Amino acid sequence: MYEGVSFVPLTWTDMLYLAPEFLLAAVFIVLVLLDLLLPKRITRQTIGWLTLAGIAASLLLVLLRMLDMNEGGVSSEAIRLLANSYRIDDFASLLKIVFLTGTGLIVLLALGSVRDDEAITDRAEYYYMLLPALIGAMMMASSGNLVTLYIGLELLSLTSYVLVGMRRKSGLSAEAAFKYVVTGGISSAMILFGMSYLYGITGSVDLGSIAEALPAALVDFKALAYVGFFFMIAGFGIKIAAAPFHAWAPDVYQGAPTPISAFLAVIAKGAALAAVFRIFYSTLLMLQDEDAIVSKDIWLALLVLAAAAMLVGATAALRQKNTKRLLALSGVANAGYMLVPIGISLSVVHSSNFSEFIYYLIAYLFMTIGAFAVVSTVSRSSGNEELKSFAGMYYRAPWTAAAMVVFVLSLSGLPVSGGFFGKLFILLGAANAKAYWLVGVIVLSSVISYYFYFGFVRQMFMRSGSEQGEIRVSAETGIVIWACAAATLALGLFPGPVMEWINAVFSLQGDLMINS
Prior knowledge:
The structure is a single chain. Helices cover 74% and strands 1% of the residues. The protein is mainly α. A two-stranded antiparallel ribbon has the order 1-2. Strand 1 (79-81) and strand 2 form a beta hairpin. Helix 4 (90-113) runs parallel beside helix 14 (352-382) and helix 11 packs parallel to helix 13 (323-343). Mean pLDDT is 89; it is low at 1-5.
């Protein structure tokens, strides 16, 4: 026991609150042992289905806990564990639902594609290694202090490095894994360096305590506070692949197995954005008077990063002919869109900042995983991942082509799609904050993106594909494609109920204003 520090052990009740995470950890350990004990003649597809079952069970536990916390339509107070270092609140629960749903779809996509990918030799690891990565993402969403957040970040990162290099016989996969390890290590170092400055000037790693101590610390250590926050922005900028920190993404997405590329694009990116949301809102919103200048500068830096990501991602994708590299650069632009609701608190702070963010993240999840599922199917039939492999797809697989049109419409932000309303809500939020220059950037980047997104449509409907092979869609991949297409259309047709539900359960004061 150290002076001034009290350690609060976990109780059995606390264990129940952590049931979703503990369940995933238990399933992971069981599957590792099962992989070692099962004879080689038994297919490892079984482990894939057990992985999916574990994710579904964890999702059910999160939903039950969230319903219990919002019983009768009234949100209860956040549950604080380990001296507020881990929080069970609606912010975390909503993000965990997104992460679990997305990972479940990715496992199902892997089940439909791995049997055709002879380059993946360790197929059991291909499934169950997603579980510790998912636990890391869930920890980042629930973290109440910097240490817990960093542990979750490293758990997600280290397992992602392994998954990217899963195709051991592929030179592209080895190159992708090496680049991802190097850039990921730099990113983690920058984040940790920035965190150390915040700890140094405030004397605490607890987000609530940092928020309380920051105004006094800014009197003498304003420059160090800038260094700490800007290093964290740069480090998380690498994690979410926001320009100018995005150069690793196209190579890594191209070299990784397609389901893993989808995991990096959605889950890893979403977890890093959730961490940014949690850290910056918990520590900076209470600054007032002269100290508010610091928070305004940091919010402005986030908006500049968002604008750079949108413009660079959209323009860099114009010349791409490889579909996975194109989707990687699309992810750069989308990282910019999702940074806008976080940084827009420069002028206006309200609970819809989060609802705009989470709505677009949900839409982004379905349209991106769906697009990767189609790319996986087409690349297997053609033997390459080039855009020209989509040539004549409407005549070879009309229903799959129709689903891809839905994803293209959503990615480009056109009506009757989840992406349209996601971008619209973000754009209206920026306009409400009088950030008209940012509105112009959103519109401009969206218009630029029409060209490369509709490259898919041109190939599918306006090019001959007589020399291409037949497109066969496995049952598992077909479920992923059509579940994502249906969800994308549902979000486009009924955006109101989703936004109302998010606003009903989420509270800025109760979920993000952490009191030590």
